[in-house]
TrEMBL record:
Keywords: Transferase. The keyword Transferase applies. GO terms for molecular function: acyltransferase activity, transferring groups other than amino-acyl groups. This is GNAT family N-acetyltransferase. InterPro entries: Acyl_CoA_acyltransferase (IPR016181), GNAT_dom (IPR000182). Residues 1-137 form the N-acetyltransferase domain. It comes from Marilutibacter aestuarii. The keyword Lipid metabolism does not apply.
């Protein structure tokens, strides 16, 4: 995903440790995986992952509530444009609306990723007007 979207090569050991830390501590992250049934020989069916995202939380003192950030979105090319991300998004949106103290959903997207931006707009999200600055260590 990092290579496809940002042309970054990641250290597999660091990513594995990061995902394990996120799975091990819900205060750090929550992962959602979309599954689809795929027929096998005969009547057997195998559920296969077709998309994923990670949720993190950010406290907003301005709103006295939490923003839920959608991050690490990935849908394999063979499953894109089939509603996979929309299903994940709608699930997260409903959870956020049902949770006390959640003020909204946010995500960031690369400026050149027009397909993703169209998808997010179609789901009711708007450009928040921010640029992201960072100091990476």
């Amino acid at each position: 995903m990092a290579w496809e979207t940002e042309h970054k090569r990641l250290d597999a050991a660091i990513v594995l440790a990061g995902v394990q830390a996120g799975i091990g501590d819900p205060a750090k992250a929550r992962y959602l995986v979309a599954m689809r049934d795929a027929p096998l020989a005969g009547r057997e069916v195998l559920s296969v992952p077709v998309g994923t995202l990670m949720l993190t939380r950010e406290w907003s003192d301005w709103r006295n509530g939490e923003w839920w950030w959608i991050q690490s979105v990935y849908v394999p090319p063979a499953h894109r444009r089939q509603g996979v991300f929309a299903a994940l998004y709608r699930h997260v949106e409903q959870q956020a609306r049902d949770a006390d103290g959640v003020v909204g959903l946010r995500l960031y997207v690369e400026r050149e990723n027009d397909n993703a931006q169209r998808t997010y707009r179609a789901l009711g999200m708007d450009d928040a007007g921010y640029h992201i600055f960072e100091a990476e260590f």
